UniProtKB/TrEMBL annotation:
Active site, UniProt feature: 337
Record protein name field: Diaminopimelate decarboxylase
InterPro entries: Ala_racemase/Decarboxylase_C, DAP_deCOOHase_LysA, De-COase2_C, De-COase2_N, Orn/DAP/Arg_de-COase, PLP-binding_barrel
Modified residues (N6-(pyridoxal phosphate)lysine): 58
UniProt function note: Specifically catalyzes the decarboxylation of meso-diaminopimelate (meso-DAP) to L-lysine.
Gene that specifies this protein: lysA
Residue ranges that the Swiss-Prot or TrEMBL entry lists as coiled coil: none
Cofactors (names): pyridoxal 5'-phosphate
Amino acid sequence: MQFVHNRYQIGGVDALRIVEQYGAPVYVYDADRMKRQYARIKDAFSGVPRLRINYACKALTNLNVLRLFRQLGSGLDTVSMQELDLGLMAGFDPHDILFTPNCVSLEEVNEAVSKGVRINIDNISILEQFGDQHRGVPVCIRLNPHIMAGGNSKISVGHIDSKFGISIHQVPHVLKVISALDLKVEGLHMHTGSDILDAQVFLQGVEILLRAAADFPDLDYLDFGSGFKVPYKEGGIATDIEDLGERLSTRFNEFCAEYGRELELMFEPGKFLVSEAGTFLVRTNVVKTTPATVFAGVDSGLNHLIRPMFYDAYHHITNVSNPRGKPRIYTVVGYICETDTFGINRQLNEVREGDILAMDNAGAYCYMMASNYNSRYRPAEVMVIDGEAHLIRRRETMEDLLGTQVELPQLKGAVEA
C-alpha cells in the first residue's frame, strides 16, 4: 500500500474506492507486487543454470493468482488433491506440479499419479507401497534434516519432533527400499519451516541434503523448500534473499560439478511471493472506551484473519480514512464471540466509526484460513492488475452457507406448542 496525494493506494488504485465498489471486509491483492517478488527470487539465483520456482499455492489458491504465476513461468507446489486440481484448472502442465502431501492415504497418492504430476513422498510406509504399485514411476523423497527453523513452533517443520519428512537418519533404510523395489528417485526435498530468521541455519540444512544426495545416483533435481521471511513491521527482519542466492548458488554449482551432472535447483516459496501483495480492508463498527482501553471494533474477526490469534502474528494496521488525524492508541478487535484481537495498543490516526482500516501482509495464509465461524460469510477478494481493480471472488451469501446442508423432512414441520 502506498500513500499518494493524501490517499492510500493499492497497485495505483485508491483503497477507499475499492471499498466503495466492492464493500468491506475485502481482501485486495496487488499483482505487480507478486510479479516483483517472483522476479526478485529469480534474479537472486540467476547464477544457477537450471532453476525452478514452484509457487507453494497453499498460501493463496485463487485461480487468478495461480494463472498469474503460471504466466510468469512458475511451477506449482501442492499439498492436497484439491490444490492439484486447481493447478490443472489454472492451466499448469502436470509435469510442472509437485504433489507434496503428508499423512495421506495411498489412494490419494495413486490419484495424483494418475494425473501425471510429480510425486513427493515423506514416509517410508507409503514409499514401500508406492514402489509395489508404481514400478518405473519416478518419485521425489522428502527428508527431514532435523533443523529447527521458523518463526513459530506451528510453522517449524524440519525438526526432530516434526511429522514432516523421513528422518535423515533413516536414509540407509530408504536406500534399501529403493534397491529392493527398483525405485527411480528423481529428486530430494526438504523444508525447514516458514519465517526463516537465520540464513546460516537454512544453509546448514542445505549441506545435510547435499550429503544425502551423494547416495542417490539418478537425481534430476533438489528441492530446498522455502520459508523465506518477509518483514511485517517497518525495519523488520527479512531473509536476505540476494545474499542467500549468491551463497547457495555457488555451493549448488560446486555440488553439481562433484555429482557429475547439472541438477535443477528448486524452491517452493509461498509467503515470500504473495504476503506483501495482500491488504485486508475492514470497516470500523464502533469505537468503545473502557476504563483501561479504547477499542476499535471492526466488521471482521478471526473468522477472516486468524493469524494474530493463532500465530501471535503482527499485521500493521493503518487508518486509511483519516490519514491526517491525531495519533491515538487503540486495540483493534473483531466481532466474533470470543477474544478476537487484531492488534493491541496500536498507534493509529484517530479512528472514527465508519473509518476503513487496512491490515498489511494479508496475501498469505489469510483468506485461505478463513472460516464461517459464528456463521459469518467469508469476504470478497479483489486483484489489482495493470492499475485496475477486479473482483476475483464474490462475497458469500446465505445460499453458500446452506449449499452443503441437507435438511431432514421430519424436522421441518411446525414447532409444537
